[in-house]
Amino acid sequence: MTEKHLKEGYYFWSGDVAAAEGAIAAGCRFYAGYPITPSSEVAETMALRLPQVGGKFIEMEDEIGSIAAIIGASWTGERSMTATSGPGISLMNENIGLAVMTEVPLVIVNAMRGAPSTGLPTLIGQGDLMQAKYGSHGSYEIITLYPNNIQEAFDLMFDAFNLAEKYRVPVMYLLDGLLAHMYEKVYVPPREVWEKKIIRRKRARKGQLPYQPDEDMIPPMPLIGEGYNIHATGLTHDERGYPDLTPQAQEELVRRLNEKILKHERDIWKVEEYMTEDADVIVVSFGGESRAVKAGVNLARKEGIKAGMLRLITIWPFPWEYITKYSADYIVAEINYGQMYHLVREYSDNDVYQLNKMGGEIHTPEEVLKRIREVSS
User: Do 260 and 217 contact (CB within 8 A), yes or no?
Assistant: First the structure.
């Protein structure tokens, strides 16, 4: 690895390229993937860049093999990532459950497109929000992050890898068809600045069992190849990793897998609060859609309507406390038939309204303004 291959300065990147470069800056050195629009440029960038920084890129035969490969790489200590879109996530979901059960840190980029099925391959969608949390089977928690601009697509990768390593959990990193292919200026700080941001996973102490948790409910992670006797299984297991197919073991293990995230959710949440302090109407949004929502809120303010915006950067665990915080009515703007709407309605004691599109384009600021007028009248 040479200094010239570690980028710094200003660049004009797409969201896909920024996410890939952010992953490299955050220490990712292994990528396995299979191309699918609109995420393919992530793989193309990693294929070019990883060999330059001493990493490995593998184009796999399919999405199932891709996530299986990054699970294996993570067990050796490598920060590992793959990228795909909705149909590919559907194929990965069984192994996402395996990564949760075996507590393997990794990052999965999902560049969402119009759905269901193959839908609109090159256009925006936000239909995978529930899939990001509930795609695999059983009761589990993962972390999901969602930027709304290209600088943030780079910066937020540090959080994605740090959270994966800290909590020994898969992190879903959402882009959308708008962000993936849109270009903006990105600033990459000097190497010594971003290297300070990197959090390393806890390493198992001598004599500590592979799944023996510390007080924070997170077990330090031994690495394959360092002399540990590691047994990694998707079956319900004890602290040694050996199968223990009893109700008691299931209760203890699955409860811990969930609570190691939920007990720390306030440390994980990232939310942008925009003009919410005195708002009578708050629009909840995320990703590329939130850019139009902010413009619509500004138009409403010019008309004297007290409107605000909550932008969810952390999607999962759901930042419910930001919903209960305000006494305003809510509008949930999303490019789907209504997914986050149901969660906002669950936590709000006030009226909650929808603003939906099925996919292909974001709302215009004027459409957001029109809905704000309707709700505030």
Answer: yes
Q: Quote the CA–CA distance of 22 and 107 in Å, as a whole number.
A: 12
Determine the 3-state secondary structure of 9 from DSSP: strand
pTM of the model: 0.97
Domains, the chain, ordered by start: 3-195 (3.40.50.970), 272-376 (3.40.50.920)
The angle subtended at Cα 273 by Cα 351 and Cα 265, nearest 5°, is: 90
- Terminal-to-terminal C-alpha distance of the chain: 61
Buried/exposed code over 56-82 (b: 16+ C-beta within 10 A; e: otherwise): ebbebeebbbbbbbbbbbbbebbbbbb
Taking a C-beta distance cutoff of 8 angstroms, is the pair 97, 166 a contact? Answer: no
For residues 177 and 360, is the Cβ–Cβ distance under 8 A? no
pLDDT tens digits for 69-113? 999 999 999 999 999 999 999 999 999 999 999 999 999 999 999
Q: For 22, phi and psi rounded to 5 degrees?
A: -65, -40
Q: What is the CA radius of gyration of the chain?
A: 21
Cβ burial, residue 46 (10 Å; 0-12/13-18/19+): buried
Q: Confirm if 316 and 145 have CB atoms less than 8 A apart.
A: no
